[in-house]
């Protein structure tokens, strides 16, 4: 049985509406590349039930629904630096240390 699924990106207000009988979140993204593009890096929440579609195996509602795509929560704490950035920082610190020590001699 087909039903109407509206997918709304809350930041850009982009909206896609599809009549479909697809069963899971992963299938919906696979079948409709524009939905996969919109959902990349976003959290998907079914408006009517407040259920979060966290995995591709998440089952979609069997009736008409709206899925909001929102930014996921930002976790507190530090973000690890990439190795090349760490290496460059260490090179700059070592260089500054050498220059400082040479002026003290």
Task: Fill in the keyword field for this structure.
alpha+beta; Ubiquitin-like (UB roll); rod-shaped
SSE blueprint and pairings:
Elements: E1 3-9, E2 15-20, H1 25-31, H2 33-39, E3 42-46, E4 65-71, H3 83-104
Parallel strand pairs: 1-4
Antiparallel strand pairs: 1-2, 3-4
Structure explained in plain terms:
The structure is a single chain. By secondary structure, this protein is of the alpha+beta class. It contains three helices and four strands. A hairpin with a 5-residue loop joins strand 1 and strand 2. The longest helix has 22 residues, at 83-104. The model has no long low-confidence stretch (mean pLDDT 89).
Query: What fraction strand?
Result: 15-25%
Lateral arrangement of strands in the main beta sheet: 2-1-4-3
Question: Any idea what the CATH superfamily of the domain at 3-71 is called?
Answer: Phosphatidylinositol 3-kinase Catalytic Subunit, Chain A, domain 1
CATH class of the domain at 3-71: Alpha Beta
In CATH, the topology of the domain at 3-71 is named Ubiquitin-like (UB roll)
**Number of β-strand runs:** 4
Distance between the termini: 83 Å
Rg, Å, rounded: 23 Å
Q: Estimate percent helicity.
A: 25-40%
Integer average pLDDT: 89
SSE pattern? EEHHEEH
Q: What is the second-level CATH architecture of the domain at 3-71? A: Roll
Oligomer category: single chain
């Amino acid at each position: 049985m087909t039903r109407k699924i509206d997918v709304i990106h809350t930041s850009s207000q982009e909206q896609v509406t599809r009549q479909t009988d697809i069963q899971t979140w992963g299938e919906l993204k696979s079948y409709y590349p524009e939905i996969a593009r919109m959902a990349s890096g976003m959290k998907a929440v079914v408006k009517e039930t407040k259920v979060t579609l966290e995995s591709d195996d998440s089952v979609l509602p069997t009736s008409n629904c709206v899925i909001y795509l929102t930014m996921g929560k930002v976790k507190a704490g530090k973000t690890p630096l990439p190795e090349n950035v760490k290496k460059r920082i260490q090179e700059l610190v070592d260089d500054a240390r050498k220059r400082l020590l040479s002026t003290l001699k």
